[in-house]
Design a protein that fits this description.
- By secondary structure, the protein is of the alpha+beta class.
- It has 2 domains: 23-126 and 228-294, D-Maltodextrin-Binding Protein, domain 2 (3-Layer(aba) Sandwich), CATH 3.40.190; 128-218, 3-Layer(aba) Sandwich (D-Maltodextrin-Binding Protein, domain 2), CATH 3.40.190.10.
- The chain contains 12 helices and 8 strands.
- The chain has helices spanning 5-20, 22-29, 46-62, 77-84, 98-106, 114-117, 142-151, 165-174, 184-192, 239-253, 256-264, 274-294, and strands at residues 35-39, 66-70, 92-96, 118-134, 179-183, 196-201, 226-234, 267-269.
- β1, α3 (46-62) and β2 (66-70) form a beta-alpha-beta unit.
- α3 (46-62) packs across α9 and α5 packs across α12.
- The radius of gyration is 23 Å and the shape is globular.
- The model is unreliable at 15-20 (pLDDT under 50).
Length: 300
Amino acid sequence: MKLSRRNFLCSAMSAAAASAVPGVALALDYPTRPVRFVVSFAAGGPNDTVARILAQYLSEYLGQQFVVENRVGAGGHIGMEAVLSSPPDGYTIGFVTPNNAINATLYPSLPFDFLNDSSPVAGSMKLANVMDVNLSFPAKDLAAFGELLQTMAGIKLTHVPYRGTAPAMTDLLGGQIPVLFDNLPGSIQQIQAGRIRALGVTTAKRVDSLPDVPAIAESLPGYEVFVWYGICAPKGTPPQVVEKLNRAVNAVLANPKLVARFRELGGEPMPMTPAEFGKLITDETDKWSKVIRVAHIKLE
């Protein structure tokens, strides 16, 4: 088969154009195989729960499976290191939480620099923490808890690190620990079932899913801590792939069924551009850096 000079030149120009913008071609096709979605905490906890909801909707939206993989340990470092050391092709993404911002200062040395070694992709959810106690705990509300701290001689609160919410919740239910601060999605079912008692949520106002649980700010004016979740990819992931992922995440966050599911868990969708999510991570890293240094918090 002979090519005319005209057809040959058109073919050559098309090939040159395609090679000049490989990222665009990659983004148009992406994803062509399953995407690995790494969660740095144990299965059954709030991070895992929300990630699996997102994975389900993204799988349906993009037509490829988003497979959640729990890589647990070292305060979340093992999972995030697995993400950031993966090929930057969009086929490994990570679930981002405030621990990534906090750990940047809390740990004296990490195998990665999260801010510089990651590409922000999208925000996903904003939610409250909740203060839970075992049903046998003597304090029935925040005021009683404060009085207990003041009147019990020699009382000392000791932080007990866990690999995730699920094992911590098991110990709270079993009475091995009396108090747990947890992301609300990890506790809400146990609270609603009456198996544990919620003394307060950390957002400025009460949350719709637990209207009878006061905000801690009602007893401590000005107190507010909110939790945020999102998605990152390794640094160097093609911008076109990041943008396509971002559009997909924001599209599923607008799905009324997903919105309702998030609200059942005590959270709200948090759609963002990659730049907006990157700014949130930077601002949170700076905020917690100041807290850790002013309070002289160190790992023992």
